[in-house]
Description:
Layout: H1 2-26, H2 28-55, H3 89-96, E1 99-100, E2 108-109, H4 145-155, H5 197-203, H6 207-217, H7 223-242, H8 254-273, H9 280-299, H10 309-324, H11 329-349, H12 361-380
Antiparallel strand pairs: 1-2
Amino acid sequence: MRWRRWYSSVDASVRLKKIQTIFRQEGLCAVARRALAKLLRESGSRYEEAVARRKGSYRLDGNSNAIQLTPRLGATALEGLSLEACILQPMAQHYLDHRFDLLGSGWVQVRYGMHCRGMAGYRYDMGEQVVPDSRGDWLAGRLNPSNLKTAQRIWQRVDRGRQPIDWQLDFKSGYRWSEKTWATRLTYGHLLGVDVKVPWELSRTQHLPQMALRAATLAVKDAEAQQLVRSVRNQWLDFIATNPPGFGVNWLCPMDIAIRAANWCLAWDILQAGGFTLDPEDENVLAHSLYDHGHYIVGHLEWPNNRANHYLADICGLAFIAAYLPETRETDRWLTFAIGQLHVETLRQFLPDGGNFEGSTAYHRLSLEMVLYATALVLGL
């Protein structure tokens, strides 16, 4: 409680200073305009939450139509690919065993109820061990009741005996966010040693395209390739089942949602190009989740507050989602918007000399990579 009171007072002080700055620079009307915009955002979020808690937030339900994704990689896209150009087998084995090395953590196996080493002398024991069953009964009490049946149906497709990943955990400090709390109600940055970017980085699932690439270089019937494909598929299903749309820490930042969706599209396409096919029902679950990702991004674009690499990630991820989902009026609007904004933001965020306007080599590389992949996707259409 003491930390919470301190955080609240600091947060209020920061807000007051921000209001004073806006008042001095832009006047009273600007303060009122921004206050109204914030009120509307908060009201919209509370309405979204109320609907999600009553009706559920998954677009996938028992009456959902099957959705078939559209492959975008050409038949020759993987020609010349070698194992040396992909991740090495020891790293692939780490991913198969759910071990990840993120943000200086070293290789750590991420699971429920794990003992974390702590960060800068701060350690939190917040996770509880789970005993997953094939029916998904272990999810009861962990998720919002309106999402439970859909989540259980998705979990039932996960291979028996598979241990789930704790996607809500900062596995460096041991602090854990709740998967049944509406994302915008969650707080971060108020506890020492806790880094919200740890679960965000893990849930970007940037390792999945790497696993898919390694599988694609091996023969379709190769034992390691089959193991990699099953692991990619199981991690998709695991994440979708245990992270209902809008709930938990991994639905808090649209940028990470967009990067995750792009990685899923790319991993799926690499597997398709490599001759691997998913069960139609598994693909349907993935496709509906990609639609959930796109719908959330459109409703929470990080503009104008974060009109930098965050907004760029939003529109690049949206381009991937719209390109892989079937053509509809809605996905066509998403794609048209994303292509237009990609053009605008590339010219805006990169200066005439080629440097990024944020003045950071790390952000230059990140933004350039996002623009490169999204542009290649668009030109390929």
